[in-house]
Hints:
alpha+beta; five-stranded antiparallel β-sheet
Amino acid sequence: MTVDSLSERDWRFAFDIVYRLNSTEGLDEFRQTLLKMVNSVIASDQIMFNLVEEQDGDFVYTGMDYIGMKPRLYEKFQSNLYNDENTLLGVGAYKDTTVFRDSDLLSKETLLESKLYREIFLEHGFRYVMRAFFVQSGRTIGALGLFRGERLGEFADRDMRVLKMLSPHITQKLSRVLNCSGHMPRKSPLLADHERIRKLGLTPREVEILEHIAKHLDDSEIAERLVISPYTVKKHLSNIYKKTGVSSRVKLHLLLDSTP
């Protein structure tokens, strides 16, 4: 299944959604625009957006917004009653932005045996679920759930293709919105440890680069913030890799989050 098989009409819809999302300012406007635009192109009984935060090793849904049917049991959903459910184990497990239907991963029998499905989804009349996890630099930052009852039926391959096309753009814009609003990231343990920084031999400029990497900015964004060229950013990164002994940006993020 590839996005190449989208119809011309779907491409126009998708490009319009990307344009409108990138025109939003602030988290609230982004969330409301995302929900309305996705609902306009993929019919659903409810669409729910959540931010995803890591707290003490667990992934927690926060910053919920929705369109369609009211989520009457959201507080129960947020409880720890369903932490071990197969349908929720994907949160934090993916290293890249991912789109799937629950039925693609679990059989109908397994889904119907799930406490989450019986006590939350079926209570709302939902039978079919499609999800997107938005992952930036190996970290899940947001989740979108689309829900349908029997009337609308299972999400089609076309629905999957549309959401797969949109998801990288949603991830990129969400990351920028979160950085600008101060929602992410938490203070890096490495950057807070001046003795570790001294032992690594990092220069003040290299530390400055790392501070921006911890905010999940890309090279061009870092260059713009520091008023230097992207080439200079890459040169500093090369030196940082040598001093820290890592070989990629993903490993650098792991190092930033590490404790002695």
